Amino acid sequence: MTKADRYLVDDIHNILDNGYKDVNPRPRYEDGTPAYTISVNHVMRKYDLSKGEFPICTLRRQAWKTGIREIFTIYQHPTNVLSEMRDLGVTWWDPWDIGDGTIGQRYGATVKRYDLIHKLIDDIKKDPYGRRKVVSLWQEADLRETKGLAPCAFLTMWNVRGRYLDMSMIQRSGDMLTASGAGGINEIQYAALLMMVAKVTGYEPGVFTHFVANEQIYDRHMDNAHEMLRRAEVMKDDTQNPVLVLNKEGECQFEDFTIDDFEMKDYSPMKPQLKFELGI
Fold first, then answer.
1. Is residue 274 part of a domain?
2. Structural domain contains residue 102
């Protein structure tokens, strides 16, 4: 198992043993039934990319390429337009259409409006040891401007440490088994973002820390939670060390990266794939 797998097993047990059920949940399943969750508060995970601790789960296959493509839609070619997201290979935002073909003034639209990524890159280059390298997708004016899902992974903080660039990511809420959990899409894509920013600023990717304020397992995901625990028991003596490699030589710009620059090595997730009904 990977470090992420071990984190995930512990976090599933934590929710099963100590979680609490929500009241009057906002999300609904496709059939209109309220999507209840069992949650815990304040979950933190830490990985050192310089030591090969890439955050990816092997207890089920992760769509890591689509996760990185989603990061492109937020930071590299920032957009909130669903057709543009689909052109970049990301379709899972379609259920959050606010009625105008967008997800509202959210995510990529906020990054674009305030030029957040280029300001971050310039700050790292000009003042590497400054302690104000904060990128926030939680902009009150944007949230009030349109309806739409409030950003989940909404804040990153960046610090230079010698030859390394470290990053922490703050997430207000996370669906553990589909996206936010250890080695899930959110960790994969933000670790990839750290690699990209480190590359264009001349540093090596260092420590990635992920904090989730409220992490949940949906009631209709409980069978899958137990299945992942069974898989972990089978795999407990199987050590894997998958790693994401960014194959980009020489100096480059942030806009130069493509999905073909990334390669996942030594990744052998368990089968069959698990299916999850989303709460929208």
1. no
2. yes
Give CA separation, 229 vs 2, 3, 58, 226, in Å: 14, 15, 12, 5
Residue 134, token pair as written in the block: 């904060």
Residue at token pair 């207890």:
59
- The pair of structure tokens assigned to 110 is 């906020």
Cβ-proximal residues to 271 (8 Å cutoff; 6+ apart), any chain: 61
Please state the separation of Cα 84 from the chain's center in Å.
Answer: 20
Q: Is residue 143 part of a domain?
A: yes
Establish whether 152 is a catalytic residue.
yes
Using alpha carbons, list the distances in angstroms from residue 113 to 93, 117, 137, 141, 181: 20, 11, 11, 11, 29
> Which residue(s) pair with 135 in the sheet?
156
- 242: domain range? 3-265
Query: Is residue 277 domain-resident?
Result: no
Could you give the CA distance from residue 246 to residue 191 in angstroms, rounded to a whole number? 11
CA nearest 244: which of 55, 8, 117, 28?
A: 55
Structural domain total, the chain: 1
Q: What CATH code is carried by the domain that includes residue 194?
A: 3.30.572.10
- Residue 166, classed as helix, strand or coil, is strand
Annotated active-site residue in 81, 143, 152, 278: 152
pLDDT at 240: 83
pLDDT tens sequence across 171-226: 999 999 999 999 999 999 999 999 999 999 999 999 999 999 999 999 999 999 99
Q: Is the pLDDT assigned to residue 267 strictly greater than 90?
A: yes
- Eight-class DSSP state of 76: I
